[in-house]
Structure formats: C-alpha cells, structure tokens
Amino acid sequence: MKMYPNVLLTTLLFFISHAGLFAAEITLKVTKRYLNLPVSQQAERGTMQFTVNKTTERTFKIRLATDKPEYWVFCDLSALKGKTITLQYSGDAAGLRQIYQDDKITGQDSLYREKNRPQFHFTSRRGWINDPNGLVFYEGEYHLFYQHNPYEREWENMHWGHAVSKDLVHWQELPIALYPDQLGTMFSGSAIIDYQNTAGFNKGNTPAMVALYTADNPDKEVQCVAYSLDKGRTWMKYAKNPVIDTKAKWNSKDTRDPRVFWYQPGKHWVMALNERDGHSIYTSPNLKDWQYQSHITGFWECPDLFELPVDGDKNKTKWVMLGASNTYMLGSFDGKTFTPESGKHYFSTGSIYAAQTYANIPVPDGRRIQVGWGRIPQPNMPFNNQMLLPTELTLRTTKDGVRLFSVPVKETGQIFKKMQSWQNLSAPEASQKLQEFNNRDGLRLKTTFKLSHATSAGLNLFGQKLVDYDMNSNLVNGVFYSPEDMTSMEITADIYIDRTSVEVFIDNGAYSYSFARNPDAKNQEGFLIQGNNIEVKNLEVYSAESIWK
Ligand code: FRU
C-alpha cells in the first residue's frame, strides 16, 4: 500500500454502524487544504459521510477506487482546518485507506494541460458539470455558477459550482457555492442583485446577491432562496425555505429551475419556473412570498424570459421565452402573463442545453449574453462536459419574421489571432492551404462558400463534417436552414475548433450548432473542402490562445 505520511489516520476499522450503512470509517485531523479521494468508474457507488463533533457535515455518493484509482477528486476542507473529522463509507474500506490530505489537489501540476482539456471553453478542475446557473454580473465580475458533481465525472450529488471572470473569456474556479442540504440536492436556478433590499438580506451598503434554486429530493422538488454578501463567495440559506412547493398542485415532481428578474413597470420580481408541461410565471415583492400568475405549456426545463429590442430599436421590443432545448417563442409580457405571437423557433442546436442569460449587465452595455451547457464528453478525463462560448443574443427582422441571432461575445476576439487569409480559391486550393493547420491545437476558421450548382458545399476535418450544407434540401449538418437570400448561393461559417468540441456560427449567427470532435482515426485527409465546383470566396485562419495561461 502506498503510504501518505501527512495523513493522520487515527482509526481504521471495519464496523457495522447503528444504521448498518457504513462498513468502514477513518478519523483524521484536518491539517491541509484538500482531501484527495481516489475514484474508479468500475467501483460501485457508495455513500460517504463526514462527521465533525458528532454532527453530519456532508453526505455524498462516490465510487471510491479499491485498488488503482482511475482519477482523483477533491474536497476543499479549508473551513474545517484543525478539526477532527470522521469519514464513514458504505463500500469497501480499501478506498478509504487511499484518501490523503495535501495543500494541492492530485494532478495540480498538470491542471488545464491534460490531453483532452478544452483550451478556450470553461470546464471544472474535477467532476461533472451541466447547466449554467445564477449567471449575474456584479462589481466587475461575471459569475458562472453551474450544476456540479465534484466527486465523479458523471451526474450525481448536485452542487452549485462557481467560477468568475472579468472578461467572459478567462475563468477562475472558486470553492463550491451551494451544498446539498436536508431539503435536497442543489438543482438549477438563477441569481440577481437585490439593490433595493426587498428581501431584507442586505447589510449596510452591501446589496445581497440572491439565488433562487430548486432543492431536489426523492419525493419532490421545491424552490428555495440563498444569499451572499461577499460577491458569491459564501452563501446563507434562507431559514424559511422552501418558498414554493407545488408538487400537489401539478400532481408532478417536475417543478424546477427558477429564473428570476425585476420587472420595472410593475415594480415586482418575476419568476419563470418550469412546472410539468411548461413555464409558469410567479410574482413577488420580496423574493420570499411568491404568487402564481400564469402558465404556458410546451416547454421543458430551464426557462429564460427577457425583452430585447428588434433591430436595435429600443422603442420596438419583443419578449423571448426559451426552454432548455433553446427553442423559443416571441411575444409580449405584462409582468404576469407571457402572450406568444410566434414560435417555436430555433437558432442553435447540437450540444447546447439549459442555456441561461446574464442578469444585471450594466445599462450602457445592456447586452443579452447567453451561456449554454455543451454536452461534450471529455474522454478519459477527471472532468466532463463544458460551457459553450458566451454569445450575444439579438433580435433581427428576417424574411421569415423577427428571429434570434447569436454570435460569440466580442471579448472572445482577444484569444484568436489572424494567421492567414485568402480570397477566391477553388475547393482543392483551399483544402491545400489548410493542410498545415490539420493538427493545430485550437483554431478558428472563417469562410464564405459560393456555390455554382444548387447542390452542396462543406468542410471536413479528418472525415468529420464540420460544415455540411445541402442547398437542395436546405440542410446544414442535417438541420433545416434557409439563408436570408437564397439566390446569393452563398453561406458563411465561423468555426471554433477546440480539443474536444466544434462550434459553428452560420451567416452571422442566424443559426449555430456545436458538437463533439470525432475524427476518423483512419482518415488521412485533414481539412477537406467539398462541393460541386464551389468557390471559397473567403478563408481566414486564426490561432487560438489557451484561456488557462
Ligand atoms: C437540466 C436539468 C434541470 C435540473 C438540472 C439537474 O439539464 O435537468 O432541469 O435542475 O438539470 O442537474
């Protein structure tokens, strides 16, 4: 057995606890910042419980490795320094013996340089992530909270993880914001800044950052409140949680993902909440007492609701209601009821799910910035999934009516440096020019194809179709897309290639999609432009700088 001298193992014994659940336990004095825990996906999930002074400090499920760990996860024990904790585990004790304390996490030295670590998309150091939560800008920081399992690369034990950025590009992961509690695990939700102290949580001149989230337990899902007075670093849960409990009303467990914002005309808070078959609207004067107002069917999970100018005209606005698939309706909203006038429509497909937009973007900026969860597997990594690039959403008039457009926020431009650009190439010429970039680590390509026959045009990378435009059927990578001017015979693509994912923005964001990289190992071609006598009108190649430097 490998020995870790810095671990103070005072007890290691097998025993049957009073509940009969825990087969093994160790006791240790916390002397370092992190507890490193070995994980193997082959091991069964067991229940781990930490006890401090006879009080349960946390309980979670983990696949403790009994022999060689596949990877390591960690707990930040800063808050427990000097205390004695007992770790009890329902599974094999061999796993417990490998747990050790250190001021570094296992693998710290190769952090963000792992083989399949995305270089310009946010990922957590360890564990699983899904939905972005509580997106709020406050005092120069963009907060990114997210659904997080710190203990495994698969979904379980939902916490709110936390990261911040000053520019929406470079992220710093912070300690976990919300831990599971007696009401359940921490499902998705949103955050706002309560400048007017409507909830009474503010302290002096410091307004509370208030999060509304779902607590999920085997019986039901309820809506809860937590607040922070230190820029989201530490959180207090509201003593009278839950604030909404509607399982009986809907005869359904599915009531979750509160999205809250201030409705200025009515001077009250609005919550869009997914309940069973669609999104409900609730209102509140104080973020604690909520009144049901209305419901619109046809949406599943993670509501978002906001007002946007049409073609930049502040006097002409529409409200956008979205669900987790990022499909949306356009309509009007009076503070209590959303009335749809068109939809559902789509503007982005593929790996994106459960996207949310930022709250509290300062007025002179006023952008509607969306971050989506990229359901991108990260093969053989101690972490999984990623966030997609933050995008700016706008409403524009098209031949089909008003539609959402989405392009990466301008801040992303700083990491992409133009290396080459060409005009008016044939497909074979363009493929040839791209050869030197076949194996480049991180790349952005901008291109415009002009078709000469109403057939197809595309770009492959090692056999995988990054862009596949079928003009006859109006399909882009299998999804219906009809350019604004069909007769132009042109299509543009802005393509972001990271280590494990690709994001593509067609025609300035009229349509976008994302997917996992899946090169054909036998394919030798690298970049290949395809099409029946197409012209590559423009081709620009940009290097991509890692955001983790
Ligand atoms: C969407 C979702 C939410 C839920 C969360 C749980 O991906 O299912 O509805 O709150 O994930 O992790």
Automatic annotation (TrEMBL):
Family listed: Belongs to the glycosyl hydrolase 32 family.
GO BP of this protein: sucrose catabolic process
InterPro entries: ConA-like_dom_sf, DUF4980, Glyco_hydro_32, Glyco_hydro_32_N, Glyco_hydro_beta-prop_sf
Glycosyl hydrolase family 32 N-terminal domain mapped to chain residues: 121-399
One Pfam short name: Glyco_hydro_32N
Gene Ontology CC: cytoplasm
GO molecular function: sucrose alpha-glucosidase activity
Descriptive protein name: DUF4980 domain-containing protein
Keyword Transmembrane: no
Lineage per the UniProt record: Bacteria, Pseudomonadati, Bacteroidota, Cytophagia, Cytophagales
The keyword Hydrolase appears for this protein: yes
